[in-house]
Each structure stands twice: as structure tokens, then as C-alpha cells.
């Protein structure tokens, strides 16, 4: 095939996806979990059939390492590209068609045999002369696996494998699961064996057995066993799974806290086989569960984590508790606070807790209270304060209580928008269909953040990629601790806001719109009413308040001129630390330019609403106002961005697919070029999302300058398209 035909063929392949993405083939494609949702098992239906999300075995990997997450693409059910079959970075395990976190509370020691047979010992039960073999070998460059065999058994039964004798108290567990990966290699005994037939005390002879011995409430020793066979059992035993011979099979037990009699202590775990001759493999054994908590999922009340700023001036309500900040001090060299917590489920006198900054304590009723940050100040008029958080439920672990109620054609974000430090869930309702998007870590530094966008009465969910400066974990950027005294002021510049003109403060890639609603007093102290990103709050002079953790706003000074026509104003600062809470780092020297003179007017002048008083020039100076932008122009840009975004999304997927194709055939240079094209398309898609976000942020206060900035950004998208085209031509 000549070069011209190759170019035409490749471009047609790419452009056809963009131009015909809405083509309907037979019946409409539907996905019950709303699309790419790694945390909910979905069923996708199209004209060709019905497909359910499932786990599968990757090349050389365990059964639980990959997921087929079906979604609708071009009106057909698809699992996307090869890269789409990996679970997110911080939820790496596939189980039951969803991605879950690696159980961190594994009650089995060395369950992946990465330390050989440490913490395990052999068991060998036989009445005949036989031969056995056991070893831990490398399954691939990342994993180890247990191999066990019994042979020359002369058709007589016996058992062989490893056991871990260890007493674990599970009496307070609500759930307990035993899971692992097994592989049947060979065996000679049919089914579960005739020896155990008709005797309920005998649990069957299987070539692979996963066994848990436990004691019940009366101290009696009990057994739970699950066996594995390559086909249906010819005998009556039912405590087995059918696992394909020669293939890895992932197993997860039922909730062991619901079997009878109920376990009180786990005393021994066994992995091995029974029967005549047999050979098997095992890996990734886990015993884990959840301990009982005071809060009950399903009671109709979402005990979601909530945080509040408290001061030594008075107690505040948090969830169903009253929290009082008694004192601020130190434990060793760490900042700490003493809290008094009262509530119906606590002792009548309440509970006193000493909590270090960035740590948590458990109340007597099982609830958790976390200390997010502590502010100690010696400024006159300022008060000690702290930010605390309580709550144990969320939309993931308790959807019955925590799924928000949303109206038709609407969108709700549980973390309030672009909050990179809080894992959130977006719930969207469009055309009667409900879909969700959960924030997750794509890798150790990249956060996929879901949020809501919309125009007029049309709202929908979108996702953006955000690079976390200090790493990503559990669907949120890791928050680096702010250290007061390191000579780094983690805050914006001091900004003057007036009752005439709102200000937009950008800090740490976050945009805050601050409006000064009114100036007055609280008691005898000057105070202001502010509206920050739509939320109204009152602050005293030299006071501060959390906006969205970890960002807070401080009011440094308040000006309330007595002259008629003069503008009321305040100096504000936003950051992780401010001139109020950390004056060591955030030293503010008042700047005279465009400063407002309090009380005395403006050097004998009365400034109009379009003027501000300059101390440097000692007179009123005009503030240039921008012409209003036609709303129809904004709608036109928004629609264009949406269409262009869809095309670049398709372009990114198709070029990545071609990269996978050439990589599979060993043409690494071509594969690299196609991957480069895909990366540029992904970056462009991120730029488009940024433009849409700017459009949303400034839609109600659009200036000519911001409008031109957005228009320029749209024009720059063409440069990326040309860059992609040049890479494609080089790859052909």
C-alpha cells in the first residue's frame, strides 16, 4: 500500500469516529452504572446483547488484577482500550466486577507468600506411604505463588499443605471475608470423594481446600471449608466452586459473620489439598472485614464527614454533637487542642479529648473526631481556633443514606466542586437517567476530578485531570502539612474588596469570588459580611474562617468612611495560612497604592462609585469598568467547546488504540508516535475543560478582558490540532 493510501485510510479511521459518533445501530445502548464507573457493577445493553462488568485474568497476573468495565461507545457496549482494563491506582483490586482497595487489615500474615513460607507451617495427614512437594516460586517478576502436590498415593486419601495457627478475635466484626487466588493443576480423585459421603461431620476431599477453623461463643471448635473442582461434583457435598483446570480462579467467601454458629475467634487457616494425587497453586490469601460502628447505614441519616471552625469563644454543633474548644497548646512539640464533646450517645458530663493536629480520636460511642488544623494567635482581639471533622458514612459505603436527591436535568457534587483534597461523588440526572462519577487516582500523582457544569437549566458532569503536587491517594490529592514558621506564606496577596466591586482571588489553582456585602460591627468590634463563591459569612476584623478545607479567608482591616458617597472596603487574604494565623510567615506591609483612607474621606474629596481613593496621589482616581458581554456569545462558545471536546476525546481514544496495535506487533517507534498524538489530544481535552470552567466561573461577571482570554484559548486549540496532524503524518 502506498503512502497516499495509508494517509487516507488512517485519517478516515480517525475522522469517522468524530463525524459518526451519534450513529444509532439497532436499539439504543444503555449502561446501568452510568458509564465508566469502577465502583459499581453495571449491566450494558445494546443491539448485540447484554454485558455485565466483570473481573478477568490478565497476562501472567492474578484473576483479580483486571476489569472489563463496559460503557456505551458509538451506541455499542465497549470495554475501551487495553489501558481501560486496569483498575485505578488507589483501588487496584477487581472483585465482583468492581474495583476495591487492597485490604489493609489482612488478618492472614504473609498471605501473598512474598516472604516464602514465613508464618506458615506444613500439615500432612496420611495413613499410607506417599510423596509430597511444596515450594514458593516466582509467578512473574512481581508475584510469588505457593505450589503444593501429593503423588504416589496408591489411590488412598490424605491431605497436605500449609497452615497458619493464629488466634484472632473477630467477635466485634460486622463482616469477615476470606478470599484468594487458586489454580487447579491436576487431580485423580473424582469429586469430593466417597469417604465423606453421607457424613455431615466430614467436609469433603478436594484437590484444593481453603479452610478456616474457629471457635464459637461456647468455645467449641468449628470448621468452614471451601473446595475447588474442575466440574460439578458427582457426590452430594456442595461446599465447593467449579474452577477451570489450568486457569487462575479468584474466590471470595460469603460473609463469615453470618454463618452458624457465628465465629468468635479465628484460630487456624489452611491452604492445601485432600484426596488421592493432586497438584495446585495458591496466592493472595486474605482474611479481612469491618468492625462494628455506632452509626448504622440504612437509618435514613447520612453521617457524612462534616467540618467546622470552632473558637474558644463558644461551642458549636457538629452532626449530633456539641463541640467546645477548651484550650490550645502543645503535646511535646506538636500543636494540640483540648475539646469537650457532648451528645445523647455520650456520658452526661461529656467527654474531654486532647488531640494533636492532623490526628483523630474515637469517642466512647464509636464515632471519630478528627483535628484538621489548629490556629493559635497572640494578636489583640484574635481568638484561638481549630477545624474539626466528624462523620463515618459517604455515598460509597452507604448509598442508602448518602445518595443526594437531585432534580431532572441537574447535577450535584458531594465535595462542592473542584475540591482536589476531598474525594467526591457527582450525581447527574439527564433524561430520567441517573449516573455518577467518583473522584479517583489515575496514578500516584494524577487525580481524576469529577465536577458539575452547565448553562441555564442544563447541567451535566465532567471530569478533568489534575496533577497533585504531593501525590494522590484514595481519590484526593495528598495535602502537604502547612508549617508556620518556615518563612513561606502559603496564601494569596492581600486584596482590597469594596461594596461596589467583587474581586476574584486565585490561589493554588483555585478561584474564589469575594463580594463585600456590608460593613458593621459585632459587639464593639468592626466586622464585615462577605459572600465567597456564593456562601455568605460574617467575620470580625483580624478574624478568619475556613472556606473549603484547607483554604480559609482572613479579614485584616475594615474601612467604613463616614463621608457620603465614600466606598466601604476591607482587606482580605485567602490561603492555607494567613497573616492572622501565621504572622511569622505572612508579614503584611500596607501598600499605599489605591488604598482607601478610613473615616476622613479622600483628602477633602468625595469619591463616586466608579472611583477609589489613592493615598499615593491623595485624590480620587477612576476605576475602569468593562462593557457587558452579550450572553448569546457565551452560549455559542460553550456549545462549540462541548462539540470540540467530544471530537478530541474520540481522537485521543483512536490514536491510543493505534498505538496499542503497533505496540502489539513490536513496531515501537510507530507506537510511540501514536501515543504522542493521543497525549496531545488528552492535554487539549484538559485545556478545553479549563476553558469551560473559566466560562462557568465568570459567566455572571464576564469582562472584555476575560472574554478575549477565553476566545484566544479557543483559537489556540487549532495549534494542538495541527501538532497532532504532524505527528500522525510522521507515523504513517
Tally of DSSP β-strands = 46
Strand line-up of the largest beta sheet: 10-13-19-15-16-17
- Quickly count the domains: 6
Task: Figure out the total of helices.
Answer: 5
Share of residues in strands: 35-45%
Question: Would you identify the CATH architecture of the largest domain?
Answer: Sandwich
User: Helical amount among residues, as a percent range?
Assistant: 10-25%
Biggest β-sheet description: 6 strands, mixed
Structural class: alpha+beta
> Distance between termini?
11 Å
CATH class identity of the largest domain: Mainly Beta
Shape: globular
Polypeptide structure, described:
This protein is an alpha+beta fold and 732 residues long. The chain folds into 6 domains: 73 residues, no CATH class; 171 residues, Jelly Rolls, CATH 2.60.120; 85 residues, no CATH class; 74 residues, no CATH class; 128 residues, no CATH class; 101 residues, no CATH class. The strands form 14 sheets. The protein has a 6-stranded mixed β-sheet with strand order 10-13-19-15-16-17, with no helix packed on it. It has a 5-stranded antiparallel β-sheet with strand order 11-12-20-14-18, with no helix packed on it. Strand 24 and strand 25 form a beta hairpin. The relative contact order is 0.07.
Using brief descriptors, characterize the structure shown.
alpha+beta, Jelly Rolls, 732 residues, six-stranded mixed β-sheet, disordered N terminus
Write a brief caption for the model.
The chain is α+β, with helices and mostly antiparallel strands and 732 residues long.
